[in-house]
TrEMBL record:
<dbReference type="Pfam" id="PF13439">
    <property type="entry name" value="Glyco_transf_4"/>
</dbReference>
<dbReference type="GO" id="GO:0016757">
    <property type="term" value="F:glycosyltransferase activity"/>
</dbReference>
<feature type="domain" description="Glycosyl transferase family 1">
    <location>
        <begin position="168"/>
        <end position="312"/>
    </location>
</feature>
<dbReference type="InterPro" id="IPR028098">
    <property type="entry name" value="Glyco_trans_4-like_N"/>
</dbReference>
<dbReference type="InterPro" id="IPR001296">
    <property type="entry name" value="Glyco_trans_1"/>
</dbReference>
<dbReference type="Pfam" id="PF00534">
    <property type="entry name" value="Glycos_transf_1"/>
</dbReference>
<feature type="domain" description="Glycosyltransferase subfamily 4-like N-terminal">
    <location>
        <begin position="18"/>
        <end position="124"/>
    </location>
</feature>
<keyword id="KW-0808">Transferase</keyword>
<protein>
    <submittedName>
        <fullName>Glycosyl transferase</fullName>
    </submittedName>
</protein>
Amino acid sequence: MRIAQIAPLAESVPPKLYGGTERIVSYLTEALVDQGHDVTLFASGDSITRAELVPITKTALRLNPYVRDPIPYHMMLLEAVRQRADEFDALHFHIDMLHMPLVQDFIGRTVTTLHGRLDLPDLPAFYRAFPDHSLVSISDNQRLPMPPVNWAGTVLHGLPRDLLPPRIDRKEGYLAFLGRISPEKRPDRAIRIAARSGKPLKIAAKIDNVDRQYWEEQIAPLLDRHSNIQFIGEINETQKAEFLGNASALLFPIDWPEPFGLVMIEAMACATPVIAFRCGSVPEVIDHGLSGFIVDDEDQAVEAVARLHELDRGRVRAAFDARFTADRMASDYVAIYRDLPGARTPAPALPRQRRAQADLQLQAAG
């Protein structure tokens, strides 16, 4: 198939540091290329891919200090997609909602993966206004707040099989927290769990400007009180394998309806079990007692730390291999592409058909 992948411009594909959506777009794009598809990636110019790259900006917007408003650049992205839309059997959007009013002419060949939270008050009215767009959720739980829409499927995220090597023989290590410093991610819970367990905790996390006050007032003081907590800061993909692989467990103490939680399967790929709070997608990702423990409060989390010896790290990695590879993710998406109502017409024929229709109209008018 000829497939277009349309990525956000905030980060490169893959991102240099933090950026879950762009990372998934990268893994999906490369897996589709491996499966023999003709893929075109619309993204920032510093992206790296074996697909055809259509660069919209020179660099990712987050890395450009002169960018104040991302909307003009995303309008440029949409215009570039519109100009080439007839070339593709399927167009896969990862930019939430900006494109929906603009793709009506080729809506039958489009699908949109919703990567973010959907329990926001402004969203139901919007999606009721665009009920015909084919949407993909990244967990079944993510769908719950939505009005009736045209769900094309749920596709759980996947990683390249060889991206993160497993550390099967790791016996004792620190507890790990990886992600963003924000109230919904609850690093305060992670700190208390580690302190009560008597285990060291390493925090590798990004601090967005919007969360700076939360960090300074709520989290930084906790680090001063507990000597077993180490804040590392934001890490890159190369550092992630060692950080997760050397941990006894990943703490995922979230307090919000997490749509997926990519870090959970990153830990599993490293053969590192996950201790996660029962929110959002967690029960769809973690097999309790196999790839980790699902808990309901901090007391249960402390108990789970004491039970980590019951888990076989080889089976943690096997759970990843069975369910969360990029190849499986790509195959799931290809099945959705093939089922789109407009994807059955070969892409090269579409321009010819439209030209023929135009010629007939001209002849009739003459």
